[in-house]
Amino acid sequence: MNKINEIIKQDIRTFFEDDEVSMLFPGKKDCITKYKIKKQKRVLTDTLKNHHVKFLGKVDYKISYVSFWKLKPFWVVQHKVSERDTCLCKVHANIQFLVLALFKKNIFDNSNIKEFARHVCCHIDNVACLQRMCGNCMELQIPYNLFEADTTVTYFKWQVRSEMFTDKNNRTRSVKHTVKDKITVTAMDAINTFNDEFIKFLYREGNVIHQFRAIKMLKSKLNPYEVLIHSDFSENYSMKYSTEI
């Protein structure tokens, strides 16, 4: 029994340290110490409950959510309110806003976009399923409840907006800002928008999984004299030359 428990512990630790499940904090001070063991902190990419479901789909045994939670490595943590996520993907954020609004109108029975993906994919970790190339599930769609014809839906949406301004030299310039707008449309228009954005969301999810797996493969093939550098640039950053003409 102890041997089985050790195998399960190792399976759970390996699962949580996968880049698809948790992201490594890059900072020198992003460490956590417990039992005199110092580890670099990792943050979960999804809720613990969703990861529990994902883990059960990867192993051939059952483990309760409570046991799964207890066996989670202490250096794998969830986001704190003080650690604001300022690098959200616009596709993911916008569709979650829309789903939440449709859920509040009782048009959808669920507000978890990850659950939606499970309903239309044979396997949520299969890139072909997510990118709608699987012959078994590519035609599946999310059902919605009946609603009144005059129902309206209000939701938030991140959008890039251009604004003109005059600089100190009286020259007119254009600047782009990402703003959070409030959108009000009919329920049918909201559903049509969801159907379009959901395809983009699934494709993006497939890309993320593919990229993490490619990085994992590269890591496994590194020799002692090689290093893998993963650089992720936010849309909020821009590059400038030190000197310009």
In short:
It comes from Macrosiphum euphorbiae (potato aphid). By secondary structure, the protein is an alpha+beta fold.
Number of helices: 7
Strand order of the largest sheet: 1-4-5
- Give the fraction of residues assigned to helices: 25-40%
Order of helices and strands: HEEEEHHEHHHEEH
Count the beta strands.
7
Instruction: Compute the CA-based radius of gyration.
Output: 22 Å
Distance between the termini: 72 Å
Mean pLDDT, all residues: 84
The largest β sheet comes out as:
3 strands, mixed
* Uncertain segments: none
Shape: globular
Category by helix and strand content: alpha+beta
Strand content: 15-25%
Helices and strands in order, then pairings?
Elements: H1 2-16, E1 22-24, E2 31-34, E3 37-40, E4 42-44, H2 48-56, H3 65-70, E5 76-77, H4 90-104, H5 113-120, H6 127-130, E6 152-166, E7 172-186, H7 187-220
Parallel strand pairs: 4-5
Antiparallel strand pairs: 1-4, 2-3, 6-7
Helix pairs in contact: 4-7
Structure, described:
37% of the residues lie in helices and 19% in strands. It is built from seven helices and seven strands. The chain has helices at residues 2-16, 48-56, 65-70, 90-104, 113-120, 127-130, 187-220; strands spanning 22-24, 31-34, 37-40, 42-44, 76-77, 152-166, 172-186. The strands form three sheets. The chain has a three-stranded mixed sheet with strand order 1-4-5, with no helix packed on it. The protein is globular, with a radius of gyration of 22 Å. The model has no long low-confidence stretch (mean pLDDT 84). It comes from Macrosiphum euphorbiae (potato aphid). This is Transposase.
